[in-house]
Amino acid sequence: MTTPMQAGAYAATPAPGVAAARAMDLSKVYGQGETKVVALDQVSVEFRQAQFTAIMGPSGSGKSTLMHCMAGLDTISSGSARIGDTELTSLKDKKLTQLRRDRIGFIFQAFNLLPTLTGLENITLPMDIAGRKPDPQWMDRVIETVGLSGRLKHRPNQLSGGQQQRVAVARALASKPEIIFGDEPTGNLDSRSGAEVLGFLRNSVRELGQTVVMVTHDPVAASYSDRVIFLADGRIVDDMANPTADSVLDRMKAFDGKARTT
User: Does any domain span residue 9?
Assistant: First the structure.
């Protein structure tokens, strides 16, 4: 078992390839003075195109904050964050909203569905706003994979929590975005449905060249990825290629052991 390096001593080294998203010396600080909290501390990382990356770490490590900053959902305190060649910190609110709508897919534990729309209308909403028509064959594949074929005319309050999450997953995938950010995307699904969604995310990377970045605490979910980045105390402390559930679990146990001895 590999022991995680001391926090701050590790910098994720990108392999050759085109970056779908990149952070350079990215810091996020909340509050000031005695209430100051450094959520991210000069993080530099690259998420390459056509790769499935999982972000893991103990509670409070900054993993969700990193994803939110990289996705343009939260401002950064210093450093830079890019989607492709676009620097997020240079964008006005309107341009940032347009980028999130047209180039990024989002999957969160909070479903963020509009209660007045049907499942299908929630799935196609981002494309409707952008004036784009969905690819019918791709839509059929997405809907079949997440098991929504018989529920498309139902509104969110007529769906179970797991079904609502499937709608959210389908919405993120439907427009074939440049990059998909998922924050515990299968956290509210049963194991079988979660495995189907994770398998589809993995296949969308391998077969269609999509890029997926997923925050998770689940070693089994992380094992679907090509690469796992580990955070602790707002810094990247390790980077694992070709993860398995066992190797990720061993790494996380090492973090827990370190926390108990410090």
Answer: no
Q: Answer yes or no: is 6 within a domain.
A: no
pLDDT tens digits for 179-201? 999 998 888 778 887 888 888 88
Instruction: Give which of 123, 167, 127 is closest to 146, Cα–Cα.
Output: 167
List the alpha helices (DSSP H) in the chain. 63-70, 93-103, 119-130, 136-145, 161-174, 191-208, 219-222, 245-261
**What is the per-residue pLDDT across 132-143, written as a single tens digit (0 to 9) for each?**
888 999 888 888
Residue 182 lies in a domain: yes
pLDDT confidence bin for 258, thresholds 50/70/90: low
Query: How many domains are contained in the chain?
Result: 1
> Helix or strand or coil: residue 228?
strand
Question: What pLDDT shows up at residue 2?
Answer: 39
| Residues spanned by the domain of 89 | 19-261
Q: 111 to each of 4, 143, 161, 241, how far by Cα in Å? A: 34, 16, 9, 30
pTM of the shown model: 0.83
Q: Sorting pLDDT into bands at 50, 70 and 90, what band is 17?
A: low
Q: Which amino acid is at 73?
A: L
- Residue 10 in any domain: the answer is no
Contact (CB, 8 A) for 234 and 57: no
Q: What are phi and psi of 8, to 5 degrees?
A: 90, -15
